[in-house]
Design brief:
The chain is of the alpha+beta class and 490 residues long. The chain contains 16 helices and 23 strands. 36% of the residues lie in helices and 24% in strands. The strands form seven sheets. Strands 17-18-16-15-21-22-23 form a seven-stranded mixed beta sheet. A six-stranded mixed beta sheet has the order 3-2-1-5-14-13. A two-stranded antiparallel sheet has the order 4-7. Helix 9 packs across helix 14 and helix 12 packs across helix 13.
């Protein structure tokens, strides 16, 4: 009997396998941390072979630990860190270089050159994306330009490229396929015409032969035997779009915000492409049965990384779970603000050269004020984004569906509501990113019956946080954040 959908959640800091049952409840989780490498200032890499080996490990481990076999699995869904890019040999599957991670800033100067050439408006009109090293296209150009023989080999059709989902599908099935949400984050895919854009490929000097076939989010991407028996891969979405699906944000105006390594807020804007006036991104939310929905997205590069840095860099907490106790030991932030711009600033600032800062420290400050400031920063950054998104949309945001590991922290959820002045809705199951890919995979096979069932399930057992401070206090706190941010930008 097919009892579970297996969701592969390949993220920035770990690879995970999660089993979901027919009621979309988590049966089991297996996880392995993934090492990040920082060879130069602003460079961020991963070993692509580790990505694949860790993915295999957690999938085999979850079956072994739960006395299951591939016979118990209905289908496989994949969700992944989106803009990370891999270049590999078409015959052997060997990566030519490390995966260049979405946080990497090595192409900042090249992006600035393209802006000086007046190309940003063209890129926005075609892709919905700003000209920034965040996206995969300029990273792929760097690989072709800097690896010996890579460009000649690419021209001869000997190489393939893709985002992490694409690489995993190729390793599991031999098929060079991706889904439309991951394609939309490359800065090479025209999200209006829904195809690889030849003009953009020419500008970056990237052969079309490198790029994968692009499909709907619900699709048979191939069959794999890596778990010992033939299993179909039937659902893929980039992590943030997968969370949007997991939160059942299928109606225009619905908003979800995921707090993981970074923070990413998406608002469903419906079936029409619309450019942002406020340096937000327009991206593909999903395409199912050929029907497309777009989203406005705001990207915060560093969220959970701020807490990791407190643990691993400053050693002032032993575990992320300790942060809530530390925060509750002080009555307020003591005037301390933490701008976690470790790898530059994302929306709405888009400043790749900015770096982090802890501001407002006095003799009375202690480590708990710094810990509190790191959590509060997520709410201030969220307010920055939703203010811009509401202006783009032309209407106020009244509710945000949140997910990700950080929102297990009650202080963060309440402070989010206080600073943004909107209702925060936290689901019973926080693994909505993995859940989204499981839904997609299960909808293809009939394991999950319909989108209506997903919507009904998403509304069950959510916890609500309402604003609890007055406008004067909210304005005072946010004004302090804006002051700190201005000092970082200057």
């Amino acid at each position: 009997m097919k009892s579970y959908v297996l969701s592969i959640d390949q993220g920035t800091t770990s690879s995970r396998a999660i089993l979901f049952d027919k009621n979309a409840k988590i049966h089991a989780v297996s996880q392995k941390e993934l090492k990040l490498y920082y060879p130069k200032n602003g460079w961020v890499e991963q070993d692509a072979k580790d990505i694949w080996n860790d993915t295999k490990y957690v999938c085999h481990e979850i079956l072994k630990e739960n006395n299951l076999t591939a016979d118990d699995i209905d289908s496989i869904g994949i969700t992944n860190q989106r803009e990370t890019i891999i270049l590999w040999d078409k015959q052997t599957g060997e990566p030519l270089y490390n995966a260049i991670v979405w946080q990497d800033r090595r192409t900042a100067d090249y992006c600035a050159e393209l802006k000086e050439q007046g190309l940003e408006d063209k890129i926005i009109n075609k892709t919905g994306l700003l000209l920034d090293p965040y996206f995969s296209g300029t990273k792929l150009k760097w690989l072709l330009d800097n690896l010996e023989g890579a460009r000649d080999r690419a021209d001869r059709g000997e190489l393939l490229a893709g985002t992490v989902d694409c690489y995993l599908v190729w390793k599991m099935t031999g098929n060079h396929k991706t889904d439309i949400t991951n394609a939309s984050r490359t800065m090479l895919y025209n999200i209006v015409e829904q195809c690889w854009d030849n003009e953009l490929l020419d500008i970056l000097d990237i052969p079309l032969s490198l790029m994968p076939e692009v499909n709907d989010n619900i699709h048979l991407f191939g069959n794999t035997e890596f778990l010992g028996k033939d299993l179909p891969i039937t659902g893929i979405a980039g992590d943030q779009q997968s969370a949007l699906i997991g939160q059942a944000c299928f109606e225009k105006g619905m908003v979800k915000s995921t707090y993981g390594t970074g923070c990413f807020i998406l608002m469903n804007i419906g079936e029409e492409f619309k450019k942002s006036k406020n340096k937000m991104l327009t991206t593909i939310a999903y395409r199912i049965n050929g029907k497309i929905n777009y989203a406005i997205e705001g990207s915060i590069f560093n969220a959970g990384t701020a807490i990791q840095w407190l643990r691993d860099g400053l050693n002032i907490i032993d575990d992320a779970k300790d942060s809530e106790d530390a925060i509750n030991s002080v009555k307020d932030n003591g005037g301390v603000y933490f701008v976690p711009a470790f790898t530059g600033l994302g929306a709405p600032y888009w400043n790749p050269e900015a770096r982090g800062m802890i501001y407002g420290i006095t003799r009375d400050s202690n480590k708990n004020h710094v810990i509190r400031a790191a959590l509060e920063a997520q709410a201030y950054q969220t307010k920055d984004l939703i203010s811009a998104m509401a202006d783009d949309a032309g209407y106020d945001i009244t509710e945000i569906k949140v997910d990700g590991g950080m929102v297990a922290n009650n202080f963060l959820c309440q402070f989010l509501s206080d600073i943004t002045d909107v209702k925060i809705k936290r689901p019973e199951i926080l693994e909505t990113t993995a859940m989204g890919s499981a839904y997609l995979a299960g909808l293809y096979t009939g394991f999950y019956k319909s989108m209506d069932d997903i919507i009904a399930g998403s509304n069950n057992n959510s916890e609500i946080f309402e604003p609890s401070i007055n406008n004067d206090d909210r304005d005072m706190l946010y004004s302090g954040w804006q002051d700190a941010m201005n000092r970082v930008i200057l």
